[in-house]
Structure formats: structure tokens, C-alpha cells
């Protein structure tokens, strides 16, 4: 072969795709010499080096795997044709290689063992922290998990693992090509030459990987340790906070109750001061003694005295003017009918004089009416003052007036009022942080055990009915507990507005629009009571049992006399076994039936609501308004209450009157029940 050609081939040999150059050169030389060379000439040193480089440049997966599948790239397969041409020589070489390989086998076993061990070591170490199922797959899973847990871990560990992953994916993606495998086996010589170096570099590579993984593991452990530490620290802080909260709770409670007590004390002082001031104007309670009997009497205040003096003066002046007018008329008639000019002037004088008196009398009438209105206002103020005086007196005499905390929870503040057997206090719930009304039921210590038991049974019945009621127009009952042997407490939703009784005392006649919305709310509460599985008759609907919250929402309260309607009750109602002491002005005729046990139903509440509505509109009750309870019973006032009369003033709509008539239907059988009357168009606010 010429030097030029040799140069050409040697320069081409730098092209990595031609890996069988030595063989080709040998073939060409033989062809040029016209014979097949008996001994293949040793490849030039340059080519040997290139071949070595090619071996080294083979991807890592080819050295990791010792199986034929992972053979060299396809150039080897491409050179197989020419290999067939000098097959004999190749066989000799292959045999020689076989021998060498046998010698090396021992070494390779050692190295393979090492490889396996290194990989296993790596796995084992990883397995110390995470579950290992074996193989790279497991490693991959770990890597995935690690990524989720630590970003830094991803950067370090993932590079090595990505490399491994690519090796695996390439190896699995390689087609199993028999030709390729054979050619690889046949042309295995260069590999044999570099096997040791490859194994060493592989070993180093694996070691590097293992150390990266170990480093990763160390860092993950450190992170886990740090997190554990942090967790521990947070737990400790939480516990400290809880302890602190626990420690502070009584202090906080104390601060809240102290503040509430200060406010309540200031309110008490203010209330007493106002009563003193109002007393000067409106009057006060004096004591009169008649022999050994001491009784209280009301002494009017300056306001009423002044009004009365004014009224008296007005009357006196009015009488004087009337007298003057009479004498003027007398003089006029004595004079007779004059026809001259003088008598004509006198006549005009009389007329003017009379007109002055008449006009004065009219204006005095206006003044008198104003004074009478003032007197009415005075009476209302006097009533409010008397109630407030009574409340203060009750508060002063109450054994719960010293701001006790009941049941470790309810801070009692000021007395709201006193009922027949109970005192109602405004209180603050220190647990739920809201105002409540605590109704303290006191049993008279003088009562027999039987009477006490009966009272408790009665109150428990009320509680059991009331506690199940949850409606916007029914006062909620939150709690019940015993205070001592003779006292227990029910905790109610606090309604800071006045009750309807107080409203009507201050303003006896309400505009129809206001009265209507109040009665609509009461009926909504009643509808709720009648739509439950266990229907309830309130039986004691009256202005004092309708409370208002801060927004003016009306709520029905006091279920002390209420009755649960039994399931098998007929259309006429259930038997009224315990008559109770409902307020007679508001009870229907059937409740006064004494000849037989009355049958009652929700129609009782319909009647009461009718009386309430009438009272709001006309400022008086339809039956027995000025009568005492005792007189109503004695005179059978309600039994005789066949028809309600409607005063001409104030003017009330026919729809309102019709509703009242329906509610006050004398005959119980003809009276609509709650659910029926609730359909009345006057009680619905649907736009038409
Ligand atoms: N939940 C409440 N919120 C605000 N004030 C209330 C509440 N319950 C009752 N009161 C007020 O407490 C006072 C006494 O109430 P209580 O129900 O004991 O009296 P009563 O109805 O007049 O008496 P009785 O129950 O003997 O008929 C009344 O002025 C009432 O307005």
C-alpha cells in the first residue's frame, strides 16, 4: 500500500464510525499483493490507540453490563461481512482471547463481586432509612420521594440517579439483535484489552455514586433530625402556650368580671340617682301609720302638683269668662232691640266682646287638653318610676345582689325584675362570652316538701319543653342548674329591649303598622310551636311574656304554663288537667269552664294573640280591662265575652278588625287554630 493511501486511511480512521480499519487495511494489502496473508499484520500503533479510545468512548451502559445484549454499536455489525473473509485467523485470535479471558475470569469474578457488593452496600445504606425492595427501581422510588421532601436532595442525588436511569432506559430500549451480539462476541478483543481499566473506572464511578448517595442520606438524616427537633420545639411551645392560657384564664375571667362589676355598680348608682331625681318631680312612696298598722302610700311630686295648680287656675279663669259672657248676654237682652245708630254701635260692641270670650274659652280648652295630656304622661312616668323603685328595692333585698358567679360561669350583674316565684338577673356567660338572663327560681323555705317537689317538677317540665325550642321568635333556654336545696337557675337568651308590657305602659296605643309586625312575629313563633312533632300550647301569652332583643325582634318567653298536645288528641283539643293561673284578660271562655274539664287546643293561643293585638291597637283590653283578676272570675267577665267592641278612635283597618274578630271567636269549635289563622292575608307579607 502506498504511503498516500496509508495516510488517507489513517486520517479516515479518526472517523469513529469505521472501527474495523485494521482488518480492512490488512485485506486491501493482501489484495494488492494478490494473496491472502497468512498472518494478519499487527495494526499500526495509531490505530490501536484509536480503537482504545473508541472502547473508552462507548457509553457507560456497555461496560456496566457484561451480557451480549449490551454489545458495541452497530459499526461492529457492519464490519461482520469482512470478518467472514478472514474468519480462520479470527478464530485463532478468538481462541487466544478465550484463554486470556479464562485467566481474567478470576479477576472479573472478584470485580463483579465488588460491583455487586458496592451496589448492595449503597442499597443497604439507603435501606436503613427507607424501605428497599431491590434494584434501581427502588432507588428511583426513593429519589422520587426524596424530591418531595427536600429540594437540596434533588440537586445532589438526582444527577447520579438520572445517569443510572438513563443507563437502564437505554439498556431496556436496546433491541436484542442476534447479529449484533455475535459480531460483538467475535470482535471482543479490544474489550478484553480494556476490561480491567473499565472495571476500575466503573468501580470508581460506583464508589462516587455511593458516596453521593451516602452524602444525600446524611443530609436527609440531618434534615429529619432538624425537623424532629423543630417539631419537638413547637410542641413544647404549644404546651407552654396552653399552660399560659390555662394560667391566664382565671386572671382574664377576673378582669372581665371586675369590669362588668364596675359597669354594673355604676349602672346601679345611676339608676338610684335617677330615681331620686324623678321622685322629686314625680313623687315618692311615703309611710303612713294608723295605730299599729304601717302602710305605704304614694305622695305626688312637684310636677303633678304644678300641673294640678295650672289646671285649677285654668278652670277658675274659664269659669270667670263664662260668668262674664253670661252677664254680657244679660246686658244685651236687657237693652232690647234698639234701632238708632247708638244702639247699633252697642250691638256690635256686644258681638265683639262675645267673640273675645268665645275665642278665649277655645284657647283655654286647648291648654286644658295639653295639661291633661301632661298628666297622662305623668301617670306613665309615675308607673315607670314605681316599677323602677320596686326593682331597686327587690335588688337591694335579693340575696344574689352581690355579683356572684354561678356555676363557675355566670357572672350575675343587675336585677332585671322579679316575677311570682323568681328573680331574673342580667348576667354574663364567662365561657361563651355573651349576656344571658339568669332566672333564679326560689322555693319558699316554709313550703312543705311536697310543695317544693311539685314546684321543681313544674319548673323541670317548663325546662324540658323550652330547651327543645329553637326559633327566632322564641327566647332560647341555654342551661339549667341547681344553686342550693331551695334554689335553681335557668339561663335564658338575654333580650335587652323592654318587654311588650313595658312598651304598652310607656305608649299604650301603637300605630297599626307597628302592632301588625309584632303580632306577625308572635304568630310565627306560634306556628313553630304547632308544626313540631310535639305540639305546644303556650297558654300564657300576655304582653309581659313578649320580649324584644336589641334589634327589636319580638320573642315569646315563659313556658311555665305551657301544655304539650298529646298525639291522640281529637279536633276539640286535650283536657285541661291543671288549670294554672294564666292571666285572665288573655284567656278564652273555654278556660273558665267549671262544669266539666275543659278541652283546650292551640286555639287558646289564638284568642290570647287576638286580645294582645286589640290591646296594642286600642290601648285597652277588649274584655274586663279595668277589672281585677278576682273580679273577672267573680263576674264571669270572659264567659260573657261574646263580642268585642271596636272604638271609633284610633282608626284601624278593616283587615285588622277582621283578624281580631276571627281570633276572638267565642265558640272554640268555630275559632281557627294557629296554623289556619296564620294563613290570614293580614299576617302575611307577600307582595301582591
Ligand atoms: N330573657 C330575658 N331577657 C331579659 N329580660 C328578661 C328575660 N326574662 C325575663 N326578663 C325580665 O325579667 C322580669 C321578670 O321576669 P319573669 O318572667 O320572672 O316575670 P313575670 O313574667 O312578670 O313573672 P311570672 O313569671 O311570675 O309571671 C321581667 O321584667 C322580664 O321582662
UniProtKB/TrEMBL annotation:
One annotated GO molecular function: ATP binding
InterPro entries in the record: Kinase-like_dom_sf, Prot_kinase_dom, Protein_kinase_ATP_BS, Ser/Thr_kinase_AS
Keywords, ordered alphabetically: ATP-binding, Coiled coil, Kinase, Nucleotide-binding, Serine/threonine-protein kinase, Transferase
Protein name per the record: MIXED LINEAGE PROTEIN KINASE
GO CC aspect terms: nucleus
Stretches of the chain forming a coiled coil according to its record: 203-247, 361-395
UniProt region (Disordered), positions on chain: 1-89, 112-166, 325-345
Top-rank taxon, per record: Eukaryota
GO BP term, pick one: chromosome segregation
Database matches in Pfam families: Pkinase (PF00069)
Compositional bias segments (type: Low complexity): 10-20, 46-58
Gene3D superfamilies assigned: Transferase(Phosphotransferase) domain 1
Protein species of origin: Salix purpurea (Purple osier willow)
Domain spans labelled Protein kinase: 410-683
Positions bound to ATP: 439
SMART domains: S_TKc (SM00220)
Composition bias, Basic and acidic residues: 122-140, 325-338
Amino acid at each position: 500500500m502506498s504511503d498516500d493511501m496509508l495516510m488517507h486511511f489513517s486520517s479516515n480512521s479518526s472517523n469513529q464510525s469505521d472501527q474495523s480499519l485494521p482488518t480492512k487495511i490488512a485485506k486491501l494489502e493482501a489484495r494488492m499483493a494478490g494473496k491472502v496473508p497468512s498472518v494478519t499484520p499487527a495494526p499500526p500503533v495509531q490505530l490501536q490507540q484509536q480503537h482504545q479510545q473508541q472502547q473508552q468512548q462507548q457509553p457507560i451502559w456497555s461496560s456496566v453490563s457484561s451480557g451480549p445484549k449490551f454489545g458495541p454499536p452497530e459499526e461492529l455489525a457492519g464490519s461482520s461481512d469482512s470478518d467472514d473473509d478472514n474468519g480462520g485467523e479470527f478464530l485463532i485470535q478468538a481462541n487466544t482471547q478465550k484463554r486470556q479471558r479464562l485467566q481474567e475470569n478470576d479477576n472479573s469474578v472478584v470485580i463483579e463481586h465488588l460491583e455487586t457488593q458496592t451496589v448492595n452496600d449503597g442499597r443497604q445504606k439507603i435501606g436503613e432509612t427507607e424501605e428497599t425492595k431491590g434494584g434501581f427501581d427502588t432507588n428511583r422510588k426513593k429519589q422520587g420521594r426524596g424530591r418531595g421532601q427536600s429540594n437540596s436532595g434533588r440537586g445532589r442525588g438526582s444527577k447520579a440517579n438520572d445517569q443510572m436511569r438513563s443507563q437502564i432506559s437505554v439498556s431496556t430500549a436496546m433491541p436484542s439483535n442476534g447479529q449484533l451480539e455475535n459480531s460483538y462476541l467475535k470482535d471482543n478483543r479490544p474489550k478484553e484489552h480494556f476490561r480491567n481499566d473499565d472495571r476500575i473506572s466503573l468501580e470508581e464511578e460506583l464508589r462516587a455514586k455511593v458516596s453521593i448517595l451516602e452524602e444525600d442520606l446524611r443530609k436527609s438524616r440531618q434534615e429529619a433530625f432538624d425537623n424532629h427537633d423543630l417539631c419537638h420545639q413547637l410542641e413544647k411551645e404549644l404546651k407552654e402556650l396552653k399552660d399560659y392560657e390555662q394560667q391566664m384564664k382565671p386572671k382574664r375571667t377576673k378582669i372581665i368580671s371586675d369590669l362588668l362589676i364596675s359597669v354594673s355598680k355604676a349602672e346601679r348608682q345611676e339608676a338610684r340617682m335617677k330615681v331620686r331625681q324623678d321622685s322629686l318631680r314625680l313623687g315618692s312612696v311615703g309611710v303612713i301609720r294608723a295605730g299599729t298598722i304601717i302602710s305605704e302610700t304614694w305622695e305626688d311630686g312637684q310636677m303633678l302638683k304644678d300641673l294640678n295648680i295650672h289646671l285649677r287656675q285654668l278652670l277658675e279663669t274659664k269659669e270667670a269668662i263664662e260668668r262674664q259672657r253670661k252677664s254680657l248676654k244679660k246686658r244685651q237682652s236687657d237693652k232690647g232691640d234698639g234701632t238708632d245708630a247708638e244702639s247699633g254701635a252697642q250691638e256690635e260692641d256686644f258681638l265683639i266682646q262675645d267673640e273675645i270670650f268665645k275665642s278665649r274659652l277655645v284657647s283655654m280648652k286647648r291648654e286644658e287638653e295639653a295639661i291633661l295630656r301632661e298628666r297622662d304622661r305623668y301617670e306613665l312616668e309615675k308607673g315607670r318610676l314605681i316599677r323602677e323603685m320596686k326593682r331597686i328595692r327587690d335588688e337591694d333585698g335579693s340575696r344574689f345582689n352581690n355579683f356572684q358567679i354561678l356555676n363557675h360561669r355566670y357572672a350575675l350583674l343587675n336585677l332585671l325584675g322579679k316575677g311570682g316565684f323568681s328573680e331574673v338577673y342580667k348576667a354574663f356567660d364567662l365561657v361563651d362570652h355573651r349576656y344571658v338572663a339568669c332566672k333564679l327560681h326560689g322555693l319558699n323555705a316554709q313550703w312543705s316538701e311536697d310543695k317544693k317537689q311539685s314546684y321543681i317538677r313544674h319548673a323541670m317540665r317548663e325546662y324540658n319543653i323550652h330547651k327543645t325550642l329553637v326559633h327566632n321568635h322564641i327566647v332560647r333556654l341555654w342551661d339549667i342548674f341547681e344553686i342550693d336545696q331551695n334554689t335553681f337557675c335557668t339561663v335564658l337568651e338575654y333580650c335587652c329591649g323592654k318587654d311588650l308590657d313595658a312598651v304598652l305602659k310607656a305608649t299604650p296605643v301603637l300605630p297599626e303598622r307597628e302592632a301588625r309586625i309584632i303580632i306577625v312575629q308572635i304568630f310565627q313563633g306560634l306556628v313553630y310551636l304547632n308544626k313540631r312533632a310535639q305540639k305546644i300550647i303556650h297558654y300564657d301569652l300576655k304582653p309581659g311574656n313578649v320580649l324584644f332583643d336589641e334589634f327589636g325582634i319580638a320573642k315569646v318567653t315563659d313556658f311555665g304554663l305551657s301544655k304539650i298536645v298529646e298525639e291522640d288528641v281529637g279536633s276539640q283539643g286535650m283536657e285541661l288537667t291543671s288549670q294554672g293561673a294564666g292571666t285572665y284578660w288573655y284567656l278564652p271562655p273555654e278556660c273558665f269552664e267549671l262544669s266539666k274539664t275543659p278541652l283546650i287546643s292551640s286555639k287558646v293561643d289564638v284568642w290570647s294573640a287576638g286580645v294582645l293585638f286589640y290591646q296594642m291597637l286600642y290601648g285597652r283590653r277588649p274584655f274586663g280591662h279595668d277589672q281585677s283578676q278576682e273580679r273577672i272570675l267573680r263576674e264571669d267577665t270572659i264567659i260573657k265575652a261574646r263580642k268585642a267592641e271596636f272604638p271609633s278612635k284610633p282608626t284601624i283597618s278593616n283587615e285588622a278588625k277582621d283578624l281580631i274578630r276571627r281570633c276572638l271567636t267565642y265558640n272554640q269549635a268555630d275559632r281557627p287554630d294557629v296554623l289556619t289563622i296564620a294563613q290570614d292575608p293580614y299576617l302575611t307579607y307577600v307582595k301582591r
